Amino acid sequence: MIATAGLVLIEAGRIESELKKLDADLAALIEAYASSPRPWCLIDTHHRGMERRWLSFEFELGRDHDTLEKLVSKARQSYMRVGGKVSEAFVQRVEEASFRFPALRATL
Questions:
Q1: High-pLDDT (> 90) share of the chain, %
Q2: Phi and psi at residue 97, in whole multiples of 5°?
Q3: Is 59 within 8 Å of 1 (Cβ atoms)?
Q4: Do residues 16 and 85 lie in contact, with contact meaning Cβ atoms separated by under 8 Å?
Q5: Using CA atoms, how far apart are residues 98 and 49, in angstroms rounded to an integer?
Q6: How confident is the model over 31-62, as pLDDT tens digits?
Q7: CB of 1 closer than 8 Å to CB of 57
Q8: Full-model pTM
Q9: Cys bridge to 11: 6, 29, 43, 86, which one at CB 3.0-4.6 A?
Q10: Could you give the C-alpha distances from 108 to 18, 41, 102, in angstroms and in order?
């Protein structure tokens, strides 16, 4: 769980950095999320893995799990923050493209 939470944090930082540099183009955003060499959707996979491990983790009575809880909480917050930024960028680019998805037409 610790490693997976770390991957969520690493991916969140990378995505935030790449989002700032990304072209203001809908096709570029879709490619970055779904089909780039290191797609942004990896963060979703890592987040699901972290949550699955969290739900199956057996907390021992009387043991201090504060550090683990803080790590998972920070990873969750980072995931939500980055997801919000990507969603906002997506909606903005869809509006700018007049709700047309030229990048998808070429692949259909």
A1: 65
A2: -90, 15
A3: no
A4: yes
A5: 36
A6: 999 999 999 999 999 999 999 999 998 777 66
A7: yes
A8: 0.83
A9: 43
A10: 27, 20, 10
